[in-house]
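User: I'm putting together notes for a lab meeting next week and I want to include a structural view of one of the chains we've been expressing. I don't have a solved structure, so I'd like a prediction I can at least talk through. The sequence is below, exactly as it appears in our construct file.
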Amino acid sequence: MTWLITGGAGYIGSHVVKEMAVREPVVVLDDLSTGRAERLADGVPLVVGSVLDRELLDRVLVEHGVTGIVHIAGKKQVAESVERPLHYYRENVDGLRTLLEAAADAGVGRFLFSSSAAVYGMPDVDLVTEETPCKPLSPYGETKLAGEWLVAAAGRAHGMATASLRYFNVAGAGSAELGDDGVFNLVPMVFERLTKKEAPRVFGDDYPTPDGTCVRDYIHVEDVATAHVAAAQRLVDDTSASLTLNIGRGQGVSVSEMVAVIQDVAGLRDLSPVVEARRAGDAARVVAAADRIRLELGWTSRHDVRDMVTSAWAGWLLRHPVDV
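Assistant: Thanks for the context. Below is the predicted structure for the 324-residue chain, given as structure tokens.
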């Protein structure tokens, strides 16, 4: 097997590459719009380009003898997707369609798609199962759901084993060098405030949850990577596979609880969080049911919240050296 990993120089993608490359040959395709080439270990081939470039895709699939694809590349900022829906549909849906067409024509037999819990929207359930109705609230979530449909349909039509993995809230780092560069999710947002000696912000404390703040399922990026390895192996073993699986721990952590862990790890406990107004579209609770992935792949998460925060903090300090 040789796997093409799109978006493999990005935050999540580089962890997947690191985990898969010790087992089988991989080649990375990344336009480096948010990825960094230095994330990749020596010897991992990197092709700089877009999944919208059909000519490039055809060449890469043939030259590297690709037999499976892990598609992680894509745009992923919810607010930006609201402002630029056409851009998101082009990058995430047209890009995926082009990649699937190239894969089908090249006879690629396995396709693993990185989806998102954003497909669920605001589910009013204690645990979100794979059967929970999908009602995405943003163009980003819509493109992920449309992507799942495309992948499943192409798999049926062209004899590809397929899987769509719905990530919940990814955090942490496998090493400081592979940490998240973006400041779009709770953990790096709190890091940024703390290193500026500013109080962390909590958006709403009047939700119907134990402490009034939103509850989420946080998953370590290394666990996400091992889930990809398990899913890829399943596609090798079962050529008729057509899977849709949550990647989460099945454990809810409130925003207030997470902020407290972050402040403890950073040693900056004297900045009391500031409560601000709710943000539009924030569900009170979104926690994964993680039973199916355990049953289907034999996979379970290994890292807890403190592991995530501690590893993410080391990565943050590497890129934002401060006197703390």
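A couple of points you could mention at the meeting. The chain has two domains: 3-170+219-247, 172-216+250-287+302-319. The CA atoms of residues 5 and 291 lie 27 Å apart.

User: Perfect, that's what I needed.
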